[in-house]
Specification:
This protein is an all-alpha fold. It is built from 24 helices and 2 strands. The chain has a two-stranded antiparallel sheet with strand order 1-2.
Length: 555
């Protein structure tokens, strides 16, 4: 069978997800079982994957889905506890004290605070933290999820203290003969080369990501404003550009000079220190306050979980006490990633299943290291901080478990589909589906690969839901393709990493998980159609920057 036909067949699982969710508007609870079945049939009858390998990959997917649900449960429980206690009202009040303009609130909470959570934890945690805060202060659930998905782009390549580069690209390239031969020609070592790739990633993101706050507010105006116009965001253009630069300047300098661990953390923290006082003083913010339409005019598709005021809770809870649980989440996440003794202690409990059913597939679950555990710890502390009654606790628990039914069904098929897709290769047989798909794309576009490299990264993240895994899967492929097409491999691998970050905006199980936290299920297609816009912007501009970098870098 030719590479072209195999590439088309390998595209079917991705195409089925896109067609069913985005075009036919099926909810993920219906679309993902269908996509899973298509993938399994292709693996069995075209790729000739042994049945036990498909079962093993599916079980690995179920464990990963459980990890995602674990995080969602913790985030949802914390949110519902704050709602039941009445502290949501204090959080809402605090944001209006900074600025009543919804665009400013989105930039502060989603872009800066979300980036800080991404820098410390990764794993889709920003949406689990930022989206419910936005809903609590009066955002439509769909708007809250949309903006938190959009910001899962620029910060992602250096999320979880640099994991997508230090583990993803590193695992893809280290120890490979092609890389060693290339570096020997430049008398360079691999650690320095990895650092240089990280620097290129920071430059591409720094240029492309500066406009993300502006795109965020333009999207809000177009889809959630009273007039539904792109121009609703233009009045705050100076502030949005200022916010973007407050993040990307320290972010880029850190990535180039210090390495991959801290660009997102330093960019977000310095940005918050600058942007919050600036917003409070009204710096570059128009006098006319922008807001959503009145709630009674919201279409039903905007709605998720409602946050009614609780008259039986401490409505007058202090702002500090109301925010304390989320402050604790941020501090605990940061400490668990930066303090080696704490990180090692939490990671020491790892439940492993090696070589499932005698295949080469392994899976693991880290109940203490995953962010879900820290959410649950903070939830328990919240009960005491907010002095909650048994009735309030019971109400929060009931709501939380009910909210997980839809995501459980969707993720129980979405993640196993991904695992079957990426474990579809067999010794002596066909390459796995993602590699065949990428090879087909490379043979099709040839010497203009620089303009397409980021698309492969995005495809990998769309499939796997992880910039890190996309880099692991495709970094070597991108490196070899760059050498074959006569372009600089470091730039191409950097575009892979940037594309992998951009793909997080439309990844199905990121969308499902983010929606679940605010009770917005079955509307994944609406969200992906919207987030395709900023993702396309990201891929196009990144490609243009990458093409320019080929004229600057020689290594």
């Amino acid at each position: 069978m030719s590479l072209g036909i195999l590439s088309v067949l390998a595209l079917l699982p991705i195409l089925s997800v896109f067609v069913l969710i985005v075009l036919f508007r099926w909810p993920a609870t219906r679309a993902m079982p269908a996509a899973f079945l298509i993938t399994v049939l292709l693996a069995l009858f075209v790729w000739k994957v042994p049945f036990l390998q498909i079962i093993a990959a599916s079980l690995d997917g179920l464990v990963t889905a459980a990890s995602i649900l674990y995080i969602v449960l913790g985030a949802v429980l914390l949110l519902n506890l704050l709602q039941e206690s009445g502290s949501i009202n204090a959080i809402r009040k605090s944001m209006f004290l900074i600025s009543p303009d919804r665009r400013v609130q989105a930039i502060i909470v989603a872009f800066f605070f979300g980036a800080f959570i991404e820098g410390s934890a990764g794993f889709g945690t920003p949406a689990a933290v930022a989206a419910p805060i936005l809903v609590a202060i009066g955002f439509p659930a769909m708007a809250a999820v949309m903006v938190t998905l959009i910001i899962q782009s620029t910060p992602v390549s250096f999320g979880a203290v640099g994991t997508p580069i230090l583990i993803g690209v590193n695992a893809g390239l280290s120890g490979q003969a092609e890389v060693a031969n290339y570096l020997s020609a430049f008398s360079a070592d691999f650690p320095a080369y990895l650092h240089s790739i990280g620097g290129k990633v920071a430059i591409i993101h720094g240029i492309t990501g500066t406009l993300i706050p502006l795109i965020l507010v333009l999207m809000m105006g177009r889809f959630f404003g009273q007039k539904r116009k792109w121009t609703d965001g233009l009045s705050i253009l100076p502030f949005a550009l200022f916010a973007g630069l407050c993040f990307t300047i320290p972010y880029t300098l850190t990535g180039v000079l210090l390495g991959p661990e801290f660009p997102t953390l330093i960019g977000s923290l310095l940005g918050l220190i600058i942007i919050v006082p600036a917003a409070k003083s009204g710096f570059l913010i128009p006098k006319e306050t922008w807001d959503f339409p009145l709630r009674k005019f919201w279409p039903s598709e905007w709605e998720g979980q409602k946050f009614e005021e609780k008259t039986n809770g401490p409505k007058a809870a202090s702002i500090f006490r109301a925010w304390l649980p989320y402050v604790l989440v941020a501090v605990f996440l940061l400490a668990s990633r930066l303090w080696p003794w704490l990180k090692n202690m939490l990671a020491s409990l790892t439940l492993n299943w090696r070589q499932i059913f005698s295949t080469q597939i392994d899976t693991s679950f880290q109940p203490l290291y995953l962010p879900g555990f820290l959410f649950l710890v903070v939830s328990i502390l919240t009960v005491f901080i907010q002095k909650m009654s048994k009735k309030q606790i019971k109400g929060a628990l009931n709501k939380s478990f009910l909210m997980l039914i839809g995501p459980f069904i969707a993720l129980a098929f979405a993640v196993p589909m991904v695992k079957v897709f990426i474990n579809s290769g067999t010794p002596g047989g066909l390459d796995k589906m993602p590699i065949i798909l990428a090879s087909g794309a490379a043979s099709l576009v040839g010497k203009v690969w620089t303009g397409f490299a980021a698309v492969i990264g995005a495809m990998g993240a769309f499939i796997a839901g992880s910039n890190t895994f996309s880099n692991m899967m495709f970094s070597l492929f991108q490196f070899v393709t760059a050498i074959k097409t006569g372009v600089i491999p470091g730039v191409i691998v950097a575009l892979q990493a940037v594309g992998g970050a951009a793909g997080n905006m439309i990844c199905v199980h990121n969308v499902v998980a983010a929606s679940a936290v605010v009770g917005l299920i079955g509307k994944e297609g609406h969200l992906i159609r919207k987030t395709l816009i900023p993702m396309m912007y990201y891929l196009i501009v990144a490609a243009m920057v990458g093409i320019t970098m080929l004229q600057v870098f020689k290594f």
